[in-house]
Amino acid sequence: MERRLSNGNWIPVPEDQENIFLDQAVEDSARQNRYDATRYPLLSRSEIRSALSSGKEVRHGTDWYESLRNAPVRKPVPEIEKTLCQCGHRIAKMLVMNTSGGTSCPDCYDRMSE
Hints:
By secondary structure, the protein is of the alpha+beta class. It folds into 2 domains: 2-69, no CATH class; 82-113, no CATH class. 31% of the residues lie in helices and 20% in strands. It contains 3 helices and 8 strands, in the order ββααββββββα. It has helices at residues 18-35, 45-53, 106-113, and strands spanning 2-4, 10-12, 58-59, 67-69, 82-84, 90-92, 97-99, 102-104. The strands form 3 sheets. A 4-stranded antiparallel sheet has the order 2-1-4-3. A hairpin with a 2-residue loop joins strand 7 and strand 8 (102-104).
């Protein structure tokens, strides 16, 4: 579970504090329900959890940014393929430069051209 900060960034909610934020969401649901019961249904903690698991954001306070969401699944960062140049440096394969003397890293290539 993540919560939004006032700058718009999302931060993880520690597991020991999840119930506190869920209780705040239940209280906010009750507050909105008192305002307009037809538009804002009264939500229980389990209904809030199911809404979060379905991908919805749930408010937990009165400020514009006070929202909860399930943490998005992060894609793993692909490992960068590295290779050994003839200059002796190990660099990312996409950065290898071809020279008349073989392959080189960008730093050594700059030194050779001076």
